[in-house]
Amino acid sequence: MPTSAAPAPGKPIAAKVLVIGHRGASALRPEHTLASYAVAIEDGADFVEPDLVSTRDGVLVVRHENEIGGTTDVASHPEFASRRVTKTVDGESITGWFTEDFTLAELKTLRARERLADIRKANTAYDGQFTVPTFDEMIEFVAAEASARHRVIGIIPEIKHSTYFHGVGLPMEDKVLATLAAHAYTRTAPVEIQSFEIGNLKYLRGKLGKDHPNIRLLQLMDLADQHPADQPSTTYSAMMTPKGLKAIATYADAIGPSTRSIIPLTGDGKLAPVAPLVHDAHAAGLEVHPYTFRPENHFLAADFRDDAGDAARNEAGSVAEIRAYLATGIDAFFTDDPALGRKALDRP
């Protein structure tokens, strides 16, 4: 348990604290594959998360980034070697292969691979087994799982690089809404659309109005000194102030900060005193859904690590860390291992 700081007690404002399968159960299967979602659902996730990017022919597909060199086997396909390019995405120069340069048919010739191969070596055994799913396929899969298990499973899609995709003629917001409307499941099941940008969430709020009570909006927040890609004059630290949170509450239902914005770390990697973010967000009427709890020592606060090595799974440490953050009153949380999230939340 923490040795440097105990979390300030808090109460969630949500009726039920939710476990969100971050990219599925990405600690146990390559992220954003149907297999990863299957494990997350089996392990008790209340929601599962697809990150959305676009193909050249305008199809929404599920990848963490539009650059797919690290999450597919595209580099081993000589027919696509000439498509390796350098682009600027949200102000960052990136070299690789990008979904917007591929048709869906071309992407379907690729296979997923583990992104964190040095840490999650066991997941590399699944490299080459799974395709890149479309958003439609992901929804159909979740709907079938929900029917078979007789329980509702929420979907929490993130629209990636909204401004960038608008700039290349592939806007995603209306396509996301059209896709959700096209499936009977997502016309009624809980959906929470998330973004690190502001303008697209405001646009979606205007489009949704009160006609879609099952769809909520989540404002994601990056490191304090960084800014949304569509509003470079605004920092996330300013958005985390009481004034900033009050402004977010006019268009969003929840915020998604990093865990360390709630309980920061000291210089030696241990838990510091609790920040006021959860309290202030709740005061503004916003739920708090932080990201991301991961079970390997590499990602844990120093308070919870063991001596098994940096890449080792540390289930007890992960459960203890999640419980420390639950004590601050968070309303939901993203985890790469929903089974451990359930264990932390559902105390015996």
- What name does CATH use for the topology? TIM Barrel
The low-pLDDT segments are none
Mean pLDDT: 96
What's the arrangement of strands in the largest beta sheet? 7-2-1-13
CATH architecture: Alpha-Beta Barrel
Tell me the major beta sheet.
4 strands, parallel
Count of strand segments: 13
How much of the sequence is in beta strands? 5-15%
State the CATH superfamily name: Phosphatidylinositol (PI) phosphodiesterase
**Any idea how many domains?**
1
Structural class: alpha/beta
Provide the helix percentage: 25-40%
- What shape does the CA trace take? globular
- What is the highest CATH level, the class? Alpha Beta
Order of helices and strands: EHEEEEEHHEEHHEHEHHEHEHEH
Q: Could you tell me the radius of gyration in angstroms? A: 19 Å
Q: Give the number of helices.
A: 11
Q: Give the distance, in angstroms, between the N- and C-terminal Cα atoms.
A: 18 Å
Describe this structure in words.
The protein is an alpha/beta fold and 348 residues long. The protein has a single domain, classed as TIM Barrel (Alpha-Beta Barrel). The chain contains eleven helices and 13 strands. A four-stranded parallel beta sheet has the order 7-2-1-13. Strands 9-10-11-12 form a four-stranded parallel beta sheet, with helices on one face. The longest helix is centred in the middle third of the chain and has 15 residues, at 135-149. It is globular and about 55 Å long.
